[in-house]
Amino acid sequence: MNRSSRTEIVFSGRSxxxxxxxxxxxxxxxxxxxxxxxxxxxxRTFRYRDLVVTDLPGFGFMQGVPDTxxxxxxxxxxxxxxxGAENVLFAVQVIDASSxxxxxxxxxxxxxxxxxxxxxxxxxxxxIPVVVAANKMDKVEDRDETLDEICRRFGMxxxxxxxxxxxxxxxAKGGDVEPLERIIRDRLHDEGRDDLLxxxx
Length: 201
Ligand SMILES: Nc1nc2c(ncn2[C@@H]2O[C@H](COP(=O)(O)OP(=O)(O)OP(=O)(O)O)[C@@H](O)[C@H]2O)c(=O)[nH]1
Ligand SMILES: [Mg+2]
Description:
globular, alpha/beta, Rossmann fold, 6 strands, binds guanosine-5'-triphosphate, 6 helices
């Protein structure tokens, strides 16, 4: 299928990283957000013309949600991506930049594949381009070093600045989302879909 006939943008990522907050900031929506992980338990969408923007539930650990339910939610995310892959223009994988490297290293150190790397690889296997939104940058002190390390974990060689078309440092809560907005604009433009730019608030 021609990529320009693809019209879905999915927001994916671990629970509580700020997916819904980021969507609300970018598109002027009112998706439910919360302090506890596991707020979004079903994919939610909004439409603008033929563009579909999907807020996926968190992939992985959700406090207070039973393990069985977590597995069901995880399966739901995998199924959503697998079944809809050919409609997906790109995925925005949101991470919490203030804890990502530590969490990934902890899992890797135990010999396990971190959820977030698993999710990233799944999209790549499905031929879905992934943009990484490094959120909660307001909690990060050594900005460039952290972004370099994040890139490294995703298999992108530092310096992070050479990946500015795929890595966007943002702070959804502070309304600082310009780098991601620019990437989304550029990608829609490159698809010849300037008519969809109005979706961004
Ligand atoms: N410090 C900081 N907190 C943020 C930022 N973005 C979101 N948050 C907070 O992170 C928490 C989770 O935000 P949500 O948007 O609900 O996260 P989510 O990824 O949709 O979570 P689930 O729906 O549970 O998967 C909320 O308390 C937000 O206020 C940010 O840029 N900086
Ligand atoms: Mg959510």
